[in-house]
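User: quick one, fold this
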Amino acid sequence: MSAGWPVVLGRGPVGVRPLRRRDARTWSRLRAANADWLGPWEATLPREAGPAATSYVGMIGSLRRRARLGQVMPFAVTWDGEVVGMLTVNGITWGSARWASMGYWVSRTHAGRGVTPTAVALVCDHLLQTVGLHRIEISIRPENAASLRVVEKLGFTEVGVAKAYLHIAGHWRDHRVFQILAEDVPEGLVARLDPAPGPA
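Assistant:
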């Protein structure tokens, strides 16, 4: 396993832990219930890439293999122990770069409770303070107001717009790119959050 993985992190009712094979039924239920909520922001494969492996088993198998190589960290996002979303650290790079990117989603039923900012802050602090990365990047479609509020709340810096950055919902989409550096937050991102929310 890579440095800092696997790991379980939490603050109040919000937690992150490694995504497991036995999460398949919950994951599938959440994805089905939130199809219209997540659809506009969902990564897709361009036609020339061929068919995607869409099953949970295929996805988690690939993520777990890459996690063992230290390339990704696939987290389940939880509320009082119940899975309500997913956060994935991608493209972990060492050498002279020491950076990674992050993507996430949360069920509509738990939006607006501070779940996503808390999960992002927990994982960023782990990556910057424990794992030893220097930079975390989050890329967001300009239309995704909810996700933009997350990086604004946590104090990420916008570094520009990447044209046709990712294939999303069937088309190449522009993204606004944000970053946080280790020296930007010596106190950690969790310290920037409001008091921990109470249980549901």
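User: anything notable?
Assistant: The domain at 9-192 is CATH 3.40.630.30 (Aminopeptidase).
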